[in-house]
Amino acid sequence: MDKRGMNERIQKLREISVTTPVHIDLERARIETEVYKQWEGKVSIPVLRAMTLKEYWSRKTLYLGEGELIIGEKGCDPQASPTFPEICCHSVEDMTIMSERDLVSFHTTEEDRRIQKEEIIPFWTGKATRDKILDLMTPEWKKCYGAGIFTEFMEQRGPGHSCGGEQVFTTGFLDYKAQIRESMDALDFMNDPEAMDKLEELKAMDISCDAAIILGERYHELVLETAEKEADPVRKAELMQIAANLEVVPAHAPQTFWQAIQLYWFAHLGVTTDLNPWDAFSPGRLDQHLIKYYRKDVEDGILDDEKALELLECLWVKFYNQPAPVKVGITLKESSTYTDFANINTGGVTPDGKDGVNEVSYLILDCMDEMKLVQPNSNVTISRKTPQKFLKRACEISRKGWGQPAFYNTDAQVMELVNAGKSLEDARRGGSSGCVETGAWGSEAYILTGYFNIPKIFQLTLYNGYDTYSKQQLGLELGYAEDFKTYDELWNAFKTQLEYFVDIKIRGNNVIESVFAKYMPTPFMSVVTNDCIKKGKDYNAGGARYNTHYIQGVGIGTVTDSLAAIKYNVFEKGNFTMKELIEAMEADYEGHEAIYRMVHDRSPKYGNDDDYADAIMRDVFDLYHDTISGRPNMKGGKYGVIMLPTTCHVYFGDVLLATANGRKAHVPVSEGISPEKSADTNGPTAVIKSCAKMDHLATCGTLLNQKFTPDVVAGEQGLDNMASLIRSYFAMDGHHIQFNVIDRQTLIAAQQNPDDYRDLIVRVAGYSDFFRNLDKPLQDEIINRTEQSFN
Amino acid sequence: MTNYITNIQKFSIHDGDGIRTTVFFKGCPLKCQWCHNPETQRYEREMQIDPSKCLSCGACAKACPNEAIVMAQPSDRQSPMPETNKEKCAFCEKCTLYCPENIREIVGKAYEPKELVKELKKDLMFYEDSGGGVTFSGGEVMAADIDYVEELARLLAKEGITLTIDTCGYAPYEKFERLLPYVNTFLYDVKMMDPELHREYIGVDNRLILENLVKLARSGARIYIRIPTIRDLNGTEENIQATIDFLKNNNIDPAKVNLLPYHDTGSHKYAKVGMTYEGTMLEAPSSEEMEKYVNMFKQAGFINTVIGG
Q1: Which of A398-402, A520-524, A550-554, B220-224 has the lowest mean pLDDT?
Q2: A788 touches chain B (CB under 8 A)
Q3: What is the domain-level CATH number for residue B189?
């Protein structure tokens, strides 16, 4: 493994971060169990949640690494992964499996399993939100969930996906306490029936602020003690400076670049410790939030680019030190990664609409280039105003082939957000976090609720609602494939089935939403999210300024090509009958070569800038969008759609037999808005054109993957071409594009000799991961994604 | 005559400026030993098949409604291979559906000018952002029906799409003249200065090619000189110097000179169209030699000389 980092300090810190095995840390779970045992029922639920955080941070094992400049860990040391038994209480068997599985393993000791068995399981069994959800859930939902019609994000994770606004870099926790006090004073106990609930919520927020201040004080003490014993005068001085920083943050507003980063880090720890919102927490527009501190420090002569970069690299190590909480079962399949999806967007525009690229933006690019870490997920957001120099510098890093940065379209993001009801200024403060999801950062709870298997619903449509994979009736009885005499009849049946399953999903979402609103408030998150304090309402109960729910559509390429193959061959050309097609599909196309060739190679395919197929894609997209977008959620907000798979296209393909487009049984379905694997044969411009026919501005995010061999993007000309592809796609309102620049041989070699390629990072879908961490079907899938090679 | 197109290659980044779409015309008057597009040499449509992947299963012969395919035993193969009777083949493509290896493919498709331009227009956004456009290549576009090519050029100009012509220069000058109003850049191959060698390796004399180049230059056309460079053949100091002298003596001032090192990536395609690759002895000059030739051009005042397209 190559040593990366600008100097020896960073190299050492990075080395520790990437070589330490991920391990389970039960300290949080034990302290939480004690708090619940003592206080549950005696105090309100929000207060109980806040007390849990306060108690944990008052007692937790502190970590201060050698050479660290930014301090604080979620668990007891780097790569420690605290658990959240209140959400998902793992069985002893789970603990063994997670430790022993080859991929995305979390080490557990015998002692861990003993504690889990004797202390955690007895208290939490039947009480975790996972149990509550399954108790209250409808039988239809359970059947669909089990059969892979959709997944559920909150099944073993808290509602997540959040990104800090400016306040996270400017506001001390004493300042928040003053705001909370003000809001408490304004409560109307005479007329507002919710006043008492609001008071409890505000009390909980206040306790959360105390928790942060206590953690800061404890670290302050530890740093002073360490400094006293430190023999090296240089390190001693550093420690004294860190101690001085801790006298300011997190209690007060930061005064310097260094303090601003440290304050952010405490907030990050708070959010991810409070309730493990998947997709972690992100610093949002890090460059814009830091620039005022950077400029002032440079003017004061206490900061130069080298020092600023070093602090950023220290922050990068901190991100990497935190694996995403452990997942099991279907949730592991939909998101098979350690990545916690902290997504930093650099560039974009300022709240008043000017170009947002500044000096820190370029430092962040240098930092991601140097650190080459999959966490944080570092990306750029490109507007019409973004200087070409910035775009090309980002392309230069991207073409190195490890998947970062991905490119987001600022102008599209802003329009998507405005279209979803945000103010223009809040929209400009927003961007994409997690993978590609847009949100008004610092002001919005935008919750992904689960992936939706669109090709599977079409498959059921051909079988009268019967699932040939799980062998049970899941859908409505609207007829078999041969009963549909016209394409329109088939389409209408598909439409009705899709609407039916969306209803099941949303009904289930409502159950989950109310469980979290009632039992799992998240007071710390509420402190740092705009309007929760003002409203006296929790983030999980509609406290944020904006509240949006997403359902992520998967497999639009597969379903489009299936519809196109049927329309073209059965209803128009009469090349074969529906009966013959179904027979071929049921035989996995064995012995049906001609039909296979026609559907697989001789039918219109999405991804080739062919209006025949692309119009069908648009129909599918419009149907999905119109069925979901604008529906109310339980927080007073609305639903939106995203076209994003993470790793779920592999799972969704696994639960699906052969499809009408020639895709064989159990093979992954298409990912993001990318065409079906190998269906695009006209190069990247055709893919981009096809993808742009979707109405990206009506979504809340889409994901497009492009893979190049290095030669295609070599030289200055290659950079120009890459930049042109991006600019052109964005001019057509494309939301996001990411590049894998790797040759196929390298990937095959890496699959055969994983140990020789331990450093190899690939873009999976909205994030990058080590190739060795992916399972074989996903590795195959990446190898097989159409390799765009030219001349 | 019908003009056939073998390929419309989008995101073409080595045939002129920016992001381009390259149209490969079928048919060429030259027979360059190093040709890497053998499927573009003949003018007529043909059935292409990869013999190395043929399973000898006979599915194609069985599928053919015209009995145009028979299984024959070639002397250089252990198992039989399908042989297509060109007279009987109606290019119905039925055989291609039944080939389990999907190795049968028709090369050459005819397009109405409007239909082709509609296809070429699709990437307009990319041309505009990158300074690209459409390139006509081949085969040899100047060997195609000039009425057809001119109509295409006119329609492209109407759409505001810039056109580059990639040519070997072996065509009557009147054809070039008709395209001049529509062409932005000519990629003009100057393969060898020695007429004897030219005849031997390329099959025709180079006089017409050089004359046309002089005339084109005088007309004010924007020209990139392209030299596929082969070791000891035209990749010699002598030939490079002769080329430079020719350009100098005729006051030709190309916008760019591309020295394209020989490669044999097209050699595997020969068997598919029933041809034999004759260039197995050819090789590329060393990178030092290539550098040397580039410097010779630069020192002669052709500053914009680069290796590769």
Answers
A1: A398-402
A2: yes
A3: 3.20.20.70
Distances, alpha carbon A531 to alpha carbons A200, A214, A263, A534, B279, in Å: 16, 25, 20, 5, 75
**What is the C-alpha to C-alpha distance for residues A189 and A199, in angstroms, rounded to an integer?**
10
At A359, list the tokens. Answer: 């000096």
Q: How far is B18 from chain A (nearest CA, A)?
A: 7
Are the Cβ atoms of A598 and B97 closer than 8 angstroms?
Answer: yes
Residue of A nearest to B16 (CA): A717
Using a CB–CB cutoff of 8 Å, tell me whether A292 touches chain B. Answer: no
Q: Which of B92, B107, B122 is the last residue of a domain?
A: B107
pTM across the whole model: 0.91
Domain that holds residue B279: 5-43+109-307
Residue A401 has what pLDDT? 78
- If asked whether residues B145 and B244 sit together in one domain, one would say yes
In chain A, which residues have their Cβ closer than 8 Å to the Cβ of B123?
Answer: 609, 685-686, 689
- CATH number, position B66: 3.30.70.20
Minimal CA separation from A418 to chain B, in Å? 26
Please state, in angstroms and rounded to a whole number, the distance separating the CA atoms of residues A335 and A324. Answer: 10
CA dihedral over B185, B191, B196, B200, signed as positive or negative: negative
Q: Strands B223-229 and B256-261, how do they pair?
A: parallel
Query: Is residue A183 pLDDT above 70, yes or no?
Result: yes
Q: How far apart are CA A557 and CA A555, in angstroms?
A: 5
CB pairs under 8 A between A and B: 72
Same domain as B243, residue B139:
yes
Distances (CA, A) of A306 to A257, A299, A347: 13, 15, 20
Query: What pairing do the DSSP bridges indicate for beta strands A768-770 and A761-763?
Result: antiparallel
Among chain B residues, the shortest Cα distance to A595 is held by: B97
- Chain A CB contacts of B306 under 8 Å are none
Q: What is the pLDDT of residue A765?
A: 54
Looking at residue A571, what DSSP letter applies?
I
Of A597, A684, A790, the CB nearest to B102: A597
Same domain, B103 and B118: no
Which of A721, A722, A739 to probe by mutation at the B interface, max B CB count within 10 Å?
A: A721
Please tell me which residue of chain B has the smallest CA distance to A590: B100
Our count of domains for chain B comes to 2
Interface of B with A in 78-97 (CB under 8 A): 96-97
Q: Quick one: tokens of A682?
A: 């006209």
Tens-digit pLDDT profile for residues A346-391: 999 999 999 999 999 999 999 999 999 988 988 999 999 999 999 9
pLDDT digits (tens, 9 = 90+) for A222-281: 999 999 999 999 999 999 999 999 999 999 999 999 999 999 999 999 999 998 766 678
**B135 plus B250 within the same structural domain:** yes
The pLDDT tens digits for A328-339 are 887 777 677 888
Contact assignment for A721 to B122 by CB distance below 8 Å:
no
- The reply to whether A575 touches chain B by the CB within 8 Å rule is no
Q: Are the beta carbons of A593 and B59 separated by less than 8 Å? A: yes
